[in-house]
Each structure stands twice: as structure tokens, then as C-alpha cells.
Amino acid sequence: MADATAQPVSEKYEEIVSRLGKVVERLEGGGLSLEESIAAFEEGIRLARAGAAKLEEAERKVEVLLEGDRTAPFSGQEK
For 77, which DSSP code? Predict the structure, then answer.
């Protein structure tokens, strides 16, 4: 059980979302045993967390870029 949550997800955000969609389809489709359902749920949680981390990373990068743009016009005008 710990193995499924310990594996890092190093894919692009779009790949994570695609894989997460497939997991959701499997879970919603039914026909899985309890053990298979739990394993799929664990994978889904891991992928959801990885996707959220990618989004947070992108947001931080955008904030840094925007901060640079806000201060750039004033840097050469100060005396």
C-alpha cells in the first residue's frame, strides 16, 4: 500500500490529468474488486497531489515573473 503513494510522479501536468481521468473512469466503471478499487483510489490521490503540486509550482513561477515586470519600469528611473 505504501509503495503506490511513495512513487514520485514526474510527468507533465497534462499527462497527470489524463492518467487521473483514466483512474476515475476505472473507478466509476465498477467491476473492480475491493483491493483493485483501493489501489486505483491510492493512485488517483497520488496523481491529484502531483497535479496540485505542478499547478502550485507554475503559479509561483508566474508570480515571480509578474513581480519582475512590475518593478522593471521603475528600476532605471530612480535618482
Answer: T
37: left (phi over 0), alpha (psi -120 to 50) or beta: alpha
Q: What pLDDT does 34 receive? A: 96
Q: Which residues of 14-31 are buried (b: 16+ CB within 10 A; e: fewer)?
A: eebeebbeebeebeeeee
pTM value is 0.70
Share of the chain above pLDDT 70, in %: 73
CATH number for 2-71: choose from 1.10.287, 1.10.1240, 1.25.40, 2.120.10.
1.10.287
